[in-house]
Amino acid sequence: MFGKAVVVNRGDHYRSAIMLLAPILIGTVMAVSLWEWQFKTAQLKNPEELAFSAGTETFLGEYQGSPIHCLKISGSCIDAARERGFQKTMVWLGNSQLHAIVYYKTGQVNAPPAIFQHVIQKGIDLVTLSQPNANFQEQLVLFEHLKSQLNLQALLLPAVFDDMRETEIRNDVKTALDNPETISSLQKTAVGKDIVLRNTGQKISKDEDLIGLSHSLQEEVETWANHWLADHWAVWARRGEARYATFLALYDLRNWLFGITPQSKRKIVESSYQKNFSALESILSSAADANIRVLLYIAPIRQDLSLPYIAGEYSHFKTEVEQAATKYGANFVNLEKLVPPELWGADHPQNGEVVDFMHFQASGHGIFGQKLIELIDDTFLAEES
Q1: How many CB atoms lie within 10 A of CB 60?
Q2: Which partner for 362 in 76, 108, 211, 219 could form a disulfide, CB atoms 3.0-4.6 Å apart?
Q3: pLDDT higher than threshold 80 for residue 355
């Protein structure tokens, strides 16, 4: 009536559990071993440099031991500018073109230090902030934040077509949203409101792995585990680099599978383009309202190879940028052909090199810096003389 009793051998339970757990344990051991091998046999590069072609290095200028060029807002550039005590400040925002030097040799410098040395003679400081693939939405956040922190008089701002595809706000830039003045300024425009809404739904945790877990038991346990592992396992302390390297490896795998190269024609992503262009207009409008002079320029790009853009789309972009500058009273110049072909990066894809359309050699930075100095003199400093 009640059925037959089934006798279960406890040993069968153990064997089943072992069979289930064995693949997980083996996979974990293999993954840990792979990480250990990777870090022991190869020196992982700075995450900001992983996409550089061979021989390209980051250079961040200083003045009397004080930083004048930073990759992060959480760096010391803002504090250093305050300590230098200049009454007026110029800001230069951009992507990796500002900090990368192709075929770098010790003693070489890029453009920001030369421009800094020039403008301080007029009593004006220069703070340069650059991030790889920086988009206008990020630069809107940075501009509004820096405007609240420093006495801004002028802004140098490049327009890079490729970066119009980017739409995310990186974690370091998000820290500016902790500042109520930055939030208030951003909320004056539709695109600024959208940035705030998309990026302040949850508080940025001090540990980037624990975003959204503030004050929870999980945060306490994982914080302890993270610290313990970082103290006892060197690889764990560099997990951020490993995550970035893994992402880049998957990105390269996708490109290989679909035959995508740096020379492949890339169509615009319309939604991202519109958000970034709206952010550009917000920067120009905000600067005009604050009487901050702007030099908006089309960034240099190599000209000896077919550009990785749809020609009509790129032409339309340049026209729209120039029209926006005119609309908001900014100075505009097209510098796309400024740096000669021989001063760029790798150009031999048949030898396995990555063709570089964005970064150039130190001599190219010399030409770039000198041209910007001339433009600054004509636009920003004419009234200072």
Answers
A1: 18
A2: 108
A3: no
